[in-house]
């Protein structure tokens, strides 16, 4: 076991892969830091730019643009390899950081967020494809473990650093301080990008290729509308959600492998499992700080602490699985089971008589479940994908992730609006967490099928 662990670790840091691994870590860390920091700086940003009525749109614009970047990057990577998207994606992200950092109006800020979303979506899919091309199959779990580990530092210090920058310098440095480091990441990738080159596609492509960007835009619009409707519960927003679903479902038929939405065993179920486990984890997590602050009187800083602990559990489990051989399908199932246990356990902190300290071990367990499942889902997806489909299937993973999170977080918001309130959320949090535990158990059963 020791020799296997040593060889797998050294494969990441071998001379011909050292800069690739560092660049993977740096680019994902920067994107994660930006994502973790925005929430802290946003109240100051909207006040400074007089955009209070558009508070949610920096999130929505990024999410919608990410769908487009993800889908187009998948198609480009399958036809010409990951190099074009790995050049254009980080550069768009960098441009978005600069534009957002110098914005004088909310409209300009949103333009920057759109560029960041397209760039981030394009980048992550191309990184998946590059991992498949650069790292041997047995070393891919470790490479995907690096992607998970890249979220640890932003989770720990991102909100705090963003708060300090906003308070003592300017919110603009939340964006501008990252731009030079993105350029460094691109430069570190340059040698391997030259080595990979641009693949010449002589297949002629799909005659209906033009449907893909339309489907991407439709999915982006549908997902953005669902997110908006979830954040503004009312009878009118229910109509918006219905229209969004009418647009989203046909779009997904062109963006996901056949059988994904019904959980067909194999690749479709693997991709669906990403949406299910991400949706359960992030939707339960979204209402943990609300429960701790509204029910138990925690300060905002203390209410957000379990989210950091979850990130630590995620990273630890991800690094553990990266250093040991194992069946990805079994690890995905075990990840679902751990998240289900945590979701059931979180129910005990929802009443005012419940022990709030229980959230600490429970959310460490939930994070560990994600650390087991998420890299394993990526590894299994790549291994089940043909050479010309790795980009499209990696894009499908990201689309499922965003869709599952948006829908289930929205469901939680709808339950709070119907059964409780943000001041007294217990009556909604208990049935919602139990429902999410049921979804996780269903995912464990479905993913176990051969």
UniProtKB/TrEMBL annotation:
Which sequence ranges are marked TM in the entry? 55-73, 85-111, 117-135, 142-165, 171-189, 209-229, 235-256, 276-295, 301-320, 332-350, 356-374, 395-420, 426-447
Tell me which Pfam families the record gives.
MFS_1
Q: Can you list the GO cellular component terms from the UniProt entry?
A: plasma membrane
Which domain of life does the UniProt lineage start with? Bacteria
Membrane topology of the entry: Multi-pass membrane protein
Localization (cell): Cell membrane
The signal peptide, as residue positions, is none
- Which keywords appear in this protein's UniProt record, sorted alphabetically? Membrane, Transmembrane, Transmembrane helix
Domain (Major facilitator superfamily (MFS) profile): residue spans on this chain: 20-450
InterPro entries documented for this protein: MFS (IPR011701), MFS_dom (IPR020846), MFS_trans_sf (IPR036259)
In its UniProt record, a GO molecular function of this protein is: transmembrane transporter activity
Report the protein name in the record.
Answer: Predicted arabinose efflux permease, MFS family
Give the originating organism: Streptoalloteichus hindustanus
């Amino acid at each position: 076991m020791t020799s296997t662990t040593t060889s797998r670790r050294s494969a990441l840091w071998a001379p011909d892969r050292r800069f690739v691994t560092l660049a993977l870590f740096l680019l994902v860390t920067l994107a994660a830091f930006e994502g973790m920091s925005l929430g802290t700086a946003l109240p100051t940003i909207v006040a400074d730019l007089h955009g209070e009525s558009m508070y949610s749109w920096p999130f929505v614009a990024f999410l919608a643009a990410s769908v487009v970047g993800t889908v187009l990057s998948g198609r480009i990577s399958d036809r010409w390899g990951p190099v074009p998207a790995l050049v254009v994606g980080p550069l768009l992200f960098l441009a978005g950081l600069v534009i957002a950092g110098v914005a004088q109006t909310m409209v300009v800020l949103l333009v920057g967020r759109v560029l960041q979303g397209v760039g981030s979506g394009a980048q992550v899919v191309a990184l998946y494809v590059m991992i498949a091309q650069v790292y041997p199959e047995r070393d891919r779990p470790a490479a995907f473990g690096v992607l998970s580990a890249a979220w640890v530092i932003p989770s720990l210090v991102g909100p705090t650093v963003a708060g300090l920058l906003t308070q003592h310098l300017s919110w603009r440095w939340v964006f501008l301080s990252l731009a030079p480091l993105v350029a460094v990441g691109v430069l570190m990738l340059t040698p391997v990008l030259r080595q990979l080159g641009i693949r010449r596609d002589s297949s002629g492509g799909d005659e209906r290729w033009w449907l893909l960007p339309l489907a991407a835009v439709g999915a982006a619009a549908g997902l953005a509308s669902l997110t908006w409707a979830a954040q503004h519960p009312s009878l009118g927003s229910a109509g918006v959600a219905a229209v969004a679903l009418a647009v989203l479902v046909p779009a997904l038929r062109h963006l996901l492998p056949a059988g994904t939405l019904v959980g067909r065993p194999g690749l479709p179920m693997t991709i669906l499992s990403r949406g299910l486990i991400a949706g359960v984890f992030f939707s339960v997590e979204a209402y943990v700080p609300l429960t701790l602050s509204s029910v138990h009187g925690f300060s905002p800083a203390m209410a957000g602490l379990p989210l950091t602990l979850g990130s630590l559990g995620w990273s630890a489990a991800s690094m553990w699985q990266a250093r040991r051989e194992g069946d990805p399908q079994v690890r995905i199932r075990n990840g679902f089971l751990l998240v289900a246990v945590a979701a059931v356990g979180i129910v005990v902190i929802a009443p005012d008589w419940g022990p709030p300290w229980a959230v600490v071990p429970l959310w460490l367990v939930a994070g560990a479940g994600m650390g087991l499942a998420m890299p394993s889902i990526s590894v299994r997806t790549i291994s089940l994908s043909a050479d010309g489909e790795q980009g499209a299937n990696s894009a499908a993973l990201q689309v499922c992730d965003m869709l599952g999170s948006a829908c289930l977080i929205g469901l939680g918001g709808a339950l709070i609006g119907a059964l409780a309130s943000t001041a007294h959320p217990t009556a909604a949090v208990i049935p919602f967490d139990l429902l999410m535990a049921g979804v996780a158990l269903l995912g464990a059963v479905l993913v176990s099928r051969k």
